[in-house]
Design brief:
The chain has 832 residues and is α/β, with parallel strands linked by helices. The chain is built from 34 helices and 22 strands. Helix 12 packs across helix 13.
Length: 832
Amino acid sequence: MSPQRTSLGHLRVVDLTDIRGALAGRILADLGADVIRIEPATGDPARLAPPFTSDVVAADRSLPFLFRNLGKRGVVLDLDDAAGWARFVELCDRADILVENTNDPRLAPDAVRARHPALVHATIGDCGRSGPRAGWRLEPLPAFAASGALWGSGFPDRPPCWLPGFQAHDCASVVAVAGALAAVRSRTRDGRGQTVEVSVQEAAMASLAPWWILLADYQRRFPLLPRVYPRDADGPAVVLPVADGWVRILAVTPRQLRAVVALLLGLEPEAAREWTAAPVAARVNPWAPLETALAKVGEGGVELASLLVGALARLPVHPDPLRAIHAALDALRFVAGTALARRRRDEVVAHGLRLGLPIAPVLRPEEFVVAEQTRARAFFRHTDFPHLETAPVAPFPCNLSATPVVLARPAPHPGEDTGGFAPREPRSAVGPADARPPLAGLRVVSLGVGAVVPELCATLRDLGADVVKIESARSPDFLRRLTLDFASPNRSFMFNDENRGQRSVCNDLSTERGRALALRLCAAADVVAENRQGGLVERLGLGYDAVRARRPDVIYVSSQGYGRGGPLAGAPAYGPMAAAFVGATWLWNHPDAPYPGGSSLEHPDHFAGRLLAVAVLAALEHRARTGEGQHVELAQSEAAAFLLGDVYLQEACTGRPSVQRGNAAVDACPHGVYRAQGTDRWLALAVADDEAWVRFCHLLGWKPEERFATLAGRLAAGAALDARVTAWTSNHAPEQAAARLQAAGISAFPVQAPDDHRDDPHLAARGALVTIDDPEVGDVLHVGSPLRLSATPVAPPAPAPRLGADTEDVLVHVLGLDRDDARRLVEDGVCR
């Protein structure tokens, strides 16, 4: 039997990361690369990270280690021994990629390039390799605090609450893989390797919470906007109670808002349409104020918000729109608590979907594993690997039609040494340096809306691709409408962040000529990407089969909320629905929270877009070697699930379901978010082991106590220790406290809000934030690209396109129309 074809089967990777960076090698292995994990003779400390299969503490049973190192081979090396170092150097000589997060001075980028000029060196630093905080170590909780995501998560009357796991570090792993594959592509031009430098903080800012930082600049133009969006649990994607649990909804369009009313009234679609058409005075029902408001809903978001708030809160619209919106959401929860109290979760979700409402059940992780949609798509793999057996293993979640993901082997067993890489053919001679961006000359056509596909396209554009976005005045990207200024479609801060540097072509897809032009544009592209509601692009004649018939080697990307196939294939969804469906919303909570609110972040949208970028780069690598295109497909829910992979293993391997822990951890104490000096200021702290505890006590001047010398003793007294820690942190500014703790070798970081990022000297020193001159808004500060390539820098930042600004240019220079024909298409309304 011949081996399965993979995208990266020709690549060799040396993995010198700890558990925090191990997902990078895991992704490369899933895509077919030969990945060798370097481990000392004493074993990786992460082998003792709980939980363990069958609760047996052993080096081959750690679920986080087993999940994050699947597919890798093992090599045992002592890098402080001359022979061990020589063997490591030989491995790098024969490898294509080295990925590490060590801060070892021998692996400084210049030193690596001098020893291995053809090697792509992906180096991951918690705060990057430069800047005032270059030497800081961030455990997962402080890293989450550095991203800005922690600031916006949880309820306002409690400490900010994290999503457990390695979320921030995993964002960096995905960015590092994308950068490494881009650098491998560049190497084909001149034979030269290069350094890909990734900061965990910057990657997580870009992948988890990039939009908030723009608000301060947009508020100058639109004073009704808040400068900082407050921590408000579920936010506009409200979590509502039902008889047997919770559901989550997010209504963005007028049609969706009317669907909310119909759901609360118990109306089926036909009755809802009749109700909408009836005169307001003729309707009699208990929700008259709500229905009166929504009956008048037009396309204007400000009018809609005013009416909704007035109806729900029975108050005039408040000059502070956030207070009004929160009053409206509280009223909606109250109304729903009565309307839905006796209805089962599955019934409510099915009803909402019939009405076209983005709605999802708030599932526990274990419920997602057995959900009908999950089983229909066969997301989880059952490997029969040692100590995993039939447990549900989450693979790299992008499905590649020609080169499927593989789980080829278990994680290395303790002491495993599989040798190394075979000698390779001599590399081609190094040619003159080619500093063009890696994707220079590549064309991408975007049929995307919202965040996921535009995020993918923004990443490809950063790497040098020309991205052409198809939309129209009749049907623009819905993010353009989420604005307080309806005089222009070009002033939405969300749209203008997501679509930076792309080109906009107006093309009315409701017309036959518009669809024909769009198909010609797609056929002229290397990559086509869409995330429309399931089945729409096929009905427009723009699906993969139609485009492939015109362009056989196209890389075609599809991403829907719950993916293609399964009972939810056509269901509308936004990021918060995906997070609710996979168990993230439920897990993202303090155990005493009033309901599973999770976060108002649009997670996993931005992260999903970056996962797609990895898949596209892998598919392009395969095409460069074979000439073959393929279809890349991603369920946004499965993108969120990939980040929780070890959580899904727990029940199958230990017999215990997951639990809500807030900011606590089972393998570190103290571990939490502690109030600091100032209003709503917080410090994230992780005392990782017994040695760190000794240093912590010394720093705070605490007398050592035998009962706290072990983790078990500290966990038993967790609440008392948290109170003592708070007594210290509350008298210190979080920046001061974090600096003192880091100097003592203890992982800590301020919980950074958007203004903290804007004023952060470390981010300023690294140029992590970029100012873009928007033609209609002015100077706006954005989170910059987290990709840093030493030889082929990313494209300079540029503003998002004005609607249709590039229509004539693209029709003329891409499709070859003459200018008169292009202008007639605009005049006729086809390209307007």
